[in-house]
Amino acid sequence: MSTNTETQNCESKEPASQEQQSIQSNENTLVYSPDVDIAETETGIDLTFDMPGVDQDHLDISIDKDVLTVVGHAEVDQEEGYESLYREFGAGDYRRAFRLPEYVDSQNVDATVKQGILTIHLPKAKRQTVTVKAV
């Protein structure tokens, strides 16, 4: 996981640097930039995010102009009677933003989440033809 909060190009495949692993927000919660795999198919672009601890009730996916933003929140359940001595997975927020290519049909985006894996399908817009009428 990393914490790059800048908008990236959806087609960029550069890994996040080590300095981008996690940052503190104003509320003293960690903000992570989740790892993501991006694949292009004939029908669109598929993004697969690794967001452990996040379920559909704690996800916000939005598209504003040509920017896809994914925000999630994870909480760690602490069993009664147990105190953590060491933990590598913690509670915190996830945030990642991508600039979308022009050919994405942003009106028909589909998203699913299962066991902390978020999958977003960005369909390609269908080519439109215009019928020319004689006057």
UniProtKB/TrEMBL annotation:
Origin: domain of life: Bacteria
Compositionally biased region (Low complexity): 17-28
Biased composition annotated in UniProt, kind: Polar residues: 1-10
CDD domains linked: ACD_sHsps-like
Pfam assignment, any one: HSP20
Segments of this protein annotated with the region Disordered: 1-32
Domain SHSP: 27-135
Family, as annotated: Belongs to the small heat shock protein (HSP20) family.
Protein name listed in UniProt: Spore protein SP21
Organism encoding this protein: Polystyrenella longa
Lineage of producing organism: Bacteria, Pseudomonadati, Planctomycetota, Planctomycetia, Planctomycetales
